[in-house]
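Annotated sample (chain length 228).
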Amino acid sequence: MTRNLSGLLAPAAAVLLVAVVVAAVAGAWPPFVAVESGSMAPEVERGDLVVVTSTDRFPWGGLVGAAESGAPTTFGSAGDVIVFDPPDDGQRPILHRIAFPVTDGEDWTDRADPALLDGDCSTIAACPAPHDGYITYGDANGEYDQSAGIAPVVREEWITAKALFSVPNLGWFRIGVDAAIARLGVLPTAVGFGGLAAVTGGFGAVLLGRITARRDRSDHGERGGRNR
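Output written by the structure step:
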């Protein structure tokens, strides 16, 4: 019974160990973000899993906007892609690209791309900039977040992580877990997914054991035939 329990818990422990190691390297927790919208398509699609790091983590330290000289290429375009969470908007964290930094009181539309603006500074609530921060946008949105009213000028302290790369479709599990937590609560979700993992691990262990036993019998039969 102890061996069976260890076999059931081993996959979960391995997943947890991988997550802890990735978090230690990335300097962010959780070290993964599940994408819930298509605002960063086509490079990052809904359901993708994005690996993130702390914004000051070597060798990826600092934040650089798309309009700045020497901007890194992330997801096929210039500029860092960040995860930020404005404290008062009631939305889930946003994964978007930095356009450029702004300072308190600046009319940032003077150096913005006109194609990503809907109006001028007099018609945009986030202009002039109410504080130091960053102008951001989703690659597929075609407008700055601050022009579209998606987010205010992003303060640096709202930024929780910087994106490194994405893995297609691996985020659906995380999205499913988050949806279950929102509907059922943390404890029922943990029990449900833990039970599912245990059952899956148990079936896998039984199947592997039968395959191994059948192979052993086959090998034994072959050796017996040769001996005769």
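Annotation: Residues 83 and 95 are 5 Å apart (CA to CA).
Annotation: The first helix runs from residue 2 to 26.
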